[in-house]
Amino acid sequence: MSRQDGMTLVELAAALLIAGIVALIAVPNYLDLVRSTRAMQAVGDLYAVRAAAYLNYGDTTTWPPDAAAGIPPQQLLDRLPHGFRFVKEHYKIDWENWIGELRKDGDARAGVEVGVSIVSNDQKLLDAVQRLLSRYYTIRTTPTKMTLQIAGPSGI
């Protein structure tokens, strides 16, 4: 009787099939978990900017002027956590001040005068952020931007 070393072709095929099935189940779940974690980080960043804006408004009774995506308003820098960045790997933060801007009917920004946005090409990330913020007034101002209202036409 001879001893067999290694695996037969059938055993190898079965092992690869099982590994493939596990990967088909695990990879999408892992990607969803990663996206959910990024969405929670983005919500935390929105809250940090919102808190800094409220502190600034409490001290000065003014909102910082509009800034480009990824650029923090100068007035908020001292009120944000140490090392806070407006540019992250998967999204940018955009400070919005639309007070006094004329808007056409149907403008997606209706109802928001001051806000903070997440800008990302990852639609699923923006959807996840919007779900996490479902109890707050949020809007999709563009396909790649979701805005959290800080102040509306009637005030804070």
Structure commentary:
Helix 1 crosses helix 2 (123-132). The longest helix has 52 residues, at 9-60. This protein starts with 8 loop residues before the first helix and ends in a 5-residue tail after the last strand. The protein has helices spanning 9-60, 123-132, and strands spanning 92-97, 114-119, 138-142, 145-151. The radius of gyration is 23 Å and the shape is elongated. The protein is of the alpha+beta class and 156 residues long. Strands 1-2-4-3 form a four-stranded antiparallel beta sheet, covered by helices on one side. The mean pLDDT is 89.
Topology summary:
Layout: H1 9-60, E1 92-97, E2 114-119, H2 123-132, E3 138-142, E4 145-151
Antiparallel strand pairs: 1-2, 2-4, 3-4
Shape summary: elongated
Oligomer designation:
single chain
Summarize the helix and strand pattern as letters: HEEHEE
What is the count of DSSP helices, taking H or I runs of 4+ residues?
2
Q: Structural class of the helix and strand makeup?
A: alpha+beta
- Low-pLDDT stretches are none
Q: Order of strands in the sheet with the most strands? A: 1-2-4-3
* Radius of gyration from the alpha-carbon trace, in angstroms: 23 Å
What percentage of residues falls in helices of 4 or more residues? 25-40%
Profile the largest sheet: 4 strands, antiparallel
Please provide a brief summary of the model.
The protein has 156 residues and is an alpha+beta fold. The protein has two helices and four strands.
